[in-house]
């Protein structure tokens, strides 16, 4: 490219696409567009990737909480920076999708104080507190574990606070702090809490999300080779919290037969319903494959001979009489006997109910006679419903299909989770985009877009690095979060995602080797109007100190105009889960926040400038498949007819041509040729010596 086509920073003066924000949807689209051969400029005002899909730590969270700039101040800054633009300018919030973020609480507990019976660490070894002082003039008495007297009693040690260190206030926390400073005495709970909080490996996902083992996300990562950048662990189990008890959710035949959650009659009814759902999933998949095959054969036939008859393409049976499984379950078993005849009557009834527009809960109650408890388990834990009002039967069965087809692919459940947190996903796709030529600018937020008189995008205004000025980048396509156009805090009634993250000194679920679990709390359990999802991740996911757990609680709340979000719901849910775990768990860190995920209403459908593509947060979703669906939809609008997340043929040819021009060869081939050359020269030298 000629130098005149680049500015003083080396950036192009014109890009095909400018992507604003590094959220997961934008990152996926960026990678797809770069692989399709388009020039992409990707900018973000933060110094990390991901926006509301990123991974934070307590230090980053504290910095965010301290930010005092209001929406009015941000608007004033944007107006000042864009003062040289006369008209056709639409301002954007530099915070992007974080513009609606509200912080409710944050707390660190690095001192639990001293109490009788608590274990402490002293200069003489570990011991137990047997007596506490009532004032600084008295001593604390500790019985040592290792030192035993001749009469069989443990040796006692007395510790007192020196006069020069005494405070006016006296409490168990103050006593422990002063004893540690002067005598080196500290409770084991406090010592562990401090070790956890000082560990820089704590990774707290802003939006924890699993990858469905056989969904869009897996297909996209395999097609783009982004899977090579990531490592995953399988979720060990799904749990149900009700009445103070944690019970494993049955998702397969083995789980149904072995569960203690259901009565025998409920087990039989659930087994019958799961079999119907699996038959429906297999049949719909077969129909989709058959339709694709027919379309392909038709296209090939018309290409080879337009006048050729297509009657052979119509010989496919319209009704499936036996459904064979597409994959082996965990343990290498089939979910049903091979070639077992399917009850077409049950599938016909299901289809008729779908055509009649029946609700999912009505079908469970009226047709399959499931009990209220079993209906709740199916709806909220297996079919991922979130509200009290049920979805349509078609949507519920589609969710069941996705869930059941993914069970057993990579473990006991249908879900896998990235090591180091789900914030690794947007980073991986941004890395893939950069490999194929996308340019990334961090700490450089998009503050507005320029539109023409014909309401078409002509450029993006990017903030300069360490400067009050802005730079105009010409482009005809911009991708941005819809929340970026909300410069004022939302005051109308809206739904918000409420999140609570806790770092616990112990494991919530101890029955498995890895504490990577999903727990569902149904609506109306703790005053919640929506389902509460609890995700627990331990040190095997590389997100927290060894022997600890990160607990993510997520729900949806509806806020009226001017109403503050109530975070007590998740506090109560956290208490219930900790009590139900039966473990001695200390919450050493906690943070609670919320953000709006509904459309802001800034643009009406007809007002969106041509070339501007809006994305939005997926809401309370357990998996990232919604983000991939959004990304594919945006990509198909920009590059119609091209394969999503696959390398374009033109780009592949260019890469090979560049490799040839730059004499880039295969390293393994060069090493092999060098080794053969050494062997050849060695043989020649030996032959010469023999002849000599």
TrEMBL record:
GO terms for molecular function: GDP-dissociation inhibitor activity. One of its GO terms (biological process) is small GTPase-mediated signal transduction. SUPFAM superfamilies: FAD/NAD(P)-binding domain. InterPro entries: FAD/NAD-bd_sf, GDP_dissociation_inhibitor. Pfam families: GDI (PF00996). One of its GO terms (cellular component) is Rab-protein geranylgeranyltransferase complex. Belongs to the Rab GDI family. This is Rab proteins geranylgeranyltransferase component A.
